[in-house]
């Protein structure tokens, strides 16, 4: 962006990075650093970083207009003056190269690149108090962080290893000795003849890092890592009230949370991290086909897939923030493996995937796993997972961060171009699909297989340029082959006949991410109703205000061909005009919705308007005024559609 940019370049940036646009015109219209700039600066620094453009207006959401700054140097000086004012902001992350004037549509705007703050720098906060002054970037908005989130950021900054702490009031009696014995046996097998193997138990546990000494106070005792690795679940919860590890085997390739095998701390086993690993790994690999291989006269019953699953499971456990409210969750389905751990990654996911960068949250746990042959060397675990999965010609792993703070990894056992997906798309779309170039076809296939596709996901599975991906996705939306939800970097695309499947839904447990675990010692079957009784089907969760007596069309592809032509003719006065009077648009909407229910995506297509803008400016106000009737009570219901409240004949909407 150091050279003049066209509007398309701005849209490309919006889908590539976090982007915040502020008009920044000031009272005199010559440009001014807006007060809310600092909230965006704090929020971006504390999450993924991004760009702030001063002199660009985003109105409505997702549509940008360059206003320009008459005096950009005045705004730049005000920025630098305040960056060094600790009463304004806690830390300056910017260099000269991060603040630069750029030209968009012939107007000068100020581009500010806010880098992601390191773990040691966070939280970046307004004023002198992080409590109340820390902001986080969520869904393209800046939101104040609650006190619990701020304390976690402060702990992450101070504690290089979260499991290093020597605990007070815990001792050998809190450990499960069967787990300790199993670990020692594994250690002796992996490191035959090691001098630690014959040490007395207390000394052995100290050598591996389960016990230790606080160098500041001189206190000796059980480390948090030792409690997690070898403790009993009910004792672990004395220190970590939200501790929960959960394995679920689900029978179908669906996001529904019905399981046929489950492992949680229910009193029948220790419930600690090491036993969870020992019990879950065989379950994950039970159905894998092992080719016949011989090495040094011995059959090798291991494959790259086994190795990838070991790494993924170990990574989930050693990177988890066990103080968080989200449980560790491992899911096995016929089509995929899913891994969730509480806490966001300590380094940017893109850097972690590249390898060579590591900032493990629980380094003592990592060491203890490595001593018995689990978990790779620092910074190489994720690249090995990606490499081994690619070696099977399967879809690239999907690594995401979600809220509440959690990290998710999906390992799908399907081809990048699975035949069943191609057949399904061909059957539904015919030549509209088969005639597409390779990358648009891949975008539709990804949406078919994964339930959604995004600009970021396509960057991971194609080599296409970011700008080309933006153009391509826009074209698929205009052609009615994809529907878009959201704006900017948060835009998700789906096929017209599918509902978007948010990645975190695949990993939710029955109680939900924020709920406390079952009481210690209580089997999950006794602590909760079966999922089938606990959750109503979607169609029962929100009933329509009234049963539509006419057809309901949510997507353009659902509208019969003959009706499409009729609707397009009625919509022409608005569709083909750049601007029309508000009453004409309202009359056209009423005419289109008479005798049928139309979703906002259908109306947006007919009127050639942005769906969100149409919803805010026309559909919502017309419902409030009694001109339109919604099909469902919740305005944002994804199945929402509208019909005209009047049943009488309407005049031609194009006439005054």
UniProtKB/TrEMBL annotation:
It comes from the Bacteria. Residues 643-656 have a biased composition (Polar residues). Residues 15-145 form the Schlafen AlbA-2 domain. This is ATPase AAA. Residues 510-533, 630-656 are annotated as: Disordered. It holds the Pfam family SLFN_AlbA_2. InterPro entries: RecG_C_sf, Schlafen_AlbA_2_dom, Schlafen_AlbA_2_dom_sf.
């Amino acid at each position: 962006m150091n050279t003049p940019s066209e509007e398309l370049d701005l849209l490309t940036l919006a889908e590539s990075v976090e982007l915040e646009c502020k008009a920044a015109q000031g009272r005199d219209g010559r440009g001014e650093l807006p007060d809310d700039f600092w909230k965006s600066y704090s929020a971006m620094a504390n999450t993924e970083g991004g760009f702030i453009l001063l002199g660009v207006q985003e109105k409505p959401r997702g549509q940008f207009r360059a206003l320009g700054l008459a005096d950009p140097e005045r705004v730049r000086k005000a920025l630098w003056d305040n960056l060094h004012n600790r009463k304004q902001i806690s830390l300056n992350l910017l260099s000269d190269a991060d603040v630069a004037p750029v030209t968009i549509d012939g107007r000068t705007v100020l581009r500010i690149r806010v880098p992601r703050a390191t773990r040691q720098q966070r939280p970046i906060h307004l004023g002198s108090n992080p409590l109340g002054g820390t902001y986080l970037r969520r869904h393209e908005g800046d939101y104040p962080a609650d006190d619990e989130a701020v304390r976690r950021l402060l702990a992450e900054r101070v504690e290089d290893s979260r499991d290093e702490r020597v605990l007070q009031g815990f001792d050998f009696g809190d450990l499960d000795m069967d787990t300790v014995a199993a670990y020692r046996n594994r250690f002796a097998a992996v490191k035959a003849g090691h001098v630690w193997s014959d040490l007395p138990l207390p000394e052995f546990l100290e050598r591996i890092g389960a016990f230790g000494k606080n160098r500041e106070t001189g206190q000796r005792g059980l480390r948090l890592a030792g409690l997690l690795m070898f403790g009993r679940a009910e004792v672990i919860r004395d220190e970590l009230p939200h501790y929960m590890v959960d394995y679920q085997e689900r029978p179908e390739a669906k996001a529904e949370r019905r399981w046929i095998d489950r492992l949680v701390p229910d009193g029948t086993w220790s419930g600690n991290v090491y036993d969870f690993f020992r019990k879950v790994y065989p379950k994950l690999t039970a159905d894998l086909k092992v080719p016949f291989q011989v090495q040094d006269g011995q059959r090798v019953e291991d494959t790259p897939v086994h190795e990838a699953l070991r790494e993924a499971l170990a990574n989930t456990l050693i990177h988890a923030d066990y103080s968080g409210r989200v449980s560790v969750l491992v899911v096995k389905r016929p089509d995929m493996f899913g891994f969730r751990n509480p806490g966001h990654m300590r380094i940017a996911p893109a850097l972690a995937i590249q390898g060579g960068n590591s900032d493990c949250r629980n380094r003592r746990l990592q060491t203890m796993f490595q001593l018995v042959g689990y978990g790779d060397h620092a910074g190489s675990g994720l690249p090995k997972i990606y490499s081994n999965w690619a070696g099977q010609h399967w879809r690239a792993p999907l690594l995401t961060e979600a809220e509440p703070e959690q990290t998710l990894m999906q390992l799908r056992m399907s081809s990048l171009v699975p035949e069943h997906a191609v057949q399904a798309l061909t059957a539904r779309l015919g030549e509209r699909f088969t005639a597409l170039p390779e990358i648009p076809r891949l975008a539709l296939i990804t949406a078919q297989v994964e339930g959604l596709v995004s600009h970021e996901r396509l960057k991971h599975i194609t080599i296409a340029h970011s700008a080309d991906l933006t153009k391509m996705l826009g074209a698929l939306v205009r052609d009615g082959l994809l529907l878009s939800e959201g704006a900017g970097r948060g835009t998700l695309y789906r096929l017209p006949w599918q509902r978007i499947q948010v990645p975190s839904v695949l990993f939710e447990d029955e109680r939900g991410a924020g709920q406390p675990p079952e009481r210690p010692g209580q089997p999950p079957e006794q602590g909760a109703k079966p999922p089938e009784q606990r959750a109503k089907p979607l169609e029962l969760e929100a009933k329509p205000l009234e049963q539509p007596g006419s057809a309901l069309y949510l997507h353009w592809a659902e509208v019969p061909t003959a009706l499409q032509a009729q609707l397009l003719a009625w919509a022409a006065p608005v569709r083909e005009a750049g601007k029309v009077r508000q009453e004409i648009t309202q009359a056209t909407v009423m005419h289109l919705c008479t005798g049928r229910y139309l979703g906002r995506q259908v109306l947006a297509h007919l009127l050639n308007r942005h769906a969100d803008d149409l919803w805010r400016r026309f559909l919502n106000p017309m419902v409030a005024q009694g001109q339109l009737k919604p099909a469902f009570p919740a305005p944002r219901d994804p199945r929402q559609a509208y019909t005209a409240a009047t049943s009488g004949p309407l005049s031609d909407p194009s006439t005054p």
